[in-house]
Amino acid sequence: MGKLLSLKLKIWRQRNNKEKGFFKTYHVNNISPNSSFLETLDFLNNQIICNEIKKESSPIAFDHDCREGICGMCSLYINGRPHGPDNLITTCQLHMRNFRDGETIYVEPWRAKPFPIIKDLIVDRSSFDRIMISGGYISVNTSGNPIDGNMIPISKDIADKAFDASICIGCGACVVACKNRSAMLFVSAKVSQFSLLPQGKIERKRRVLNMVNKMDEEGFGSCTNTKACEAECPKGISTEYISFMNKEYIRSFTI
After folding, report:
1. Residue 119 β-bridge partners
2. pLDDT-derived band at 94, boundaries 50, 70, 90
3. Domain spanning 5-119: which superfamily?
4. N or C: which end of the chain has fewer CB within 10 A?
5. What pTM value is reported for the model?
6. pLDDT, tens digit (0-9, with 9 covering 90-100), for 59-78
7. Which residue in 252, 250, 232 sits closest to 182, CA to CA?
8. Helix, strand, coil shares of the chain as percentages rounded to 5?
9. Is domain 125-139+151-251 annotated with CATH 1.10.1060.10?
């Protein structure tokens, strides 16, 4: 099991996006190194709810859902790094054995204008939803006599590329890792997963135009070409998809 940890947590508290936020210090003890980071926050919230922490009126608000690294809801800055001090994981997959006994840990929400703070560690990522609505779909007849997807021959190379793009969970780590707060990796992954496959060819040109235009409209910055997005992506999505999207964007203006 390992030695139990005692930690100092400096957690961002902010009632809403109209008020100023601040770091508040909490001390947690007897934390198992095998517990997840979210379980540690649960432990702290339980102390708050049970009035074990004086002068604390409300538990810490943070997003979570699957706790299996699939949904991307658990996104947090931990010690200045998206999802914390490990690679290819989400916050819910981060274990406390990555921290030293007595360590001070800073916990913050995503810092990006298109992701306004709702409360404490929760941000509004509906800008990603609006980008998807603008073009992240394919035209398929799902009533009457739909075509079996397995009947359409697709080379393994193309299928693998489309699958690798499709594993993007939309967590936003790529945005907050970028100094310009660019959403290029997210958008390029979504454009690519559809445009590479035969089922996505119908909307191919208007998809990339609509999604890129919507990305700009939402206030995301331009690509910095530093590959910070790829380095911090919990799914390891390659910046090669950004190159693919740029080519798709140029091609969309041709007849």
Report:
1. 122
2. very high
3. Beta-grasp domain (3.10.20.30)
4. C
5. 0.92
6. 999 999 999 999 999 999 99
7. 232
8. 35, 15, 50
9. yes
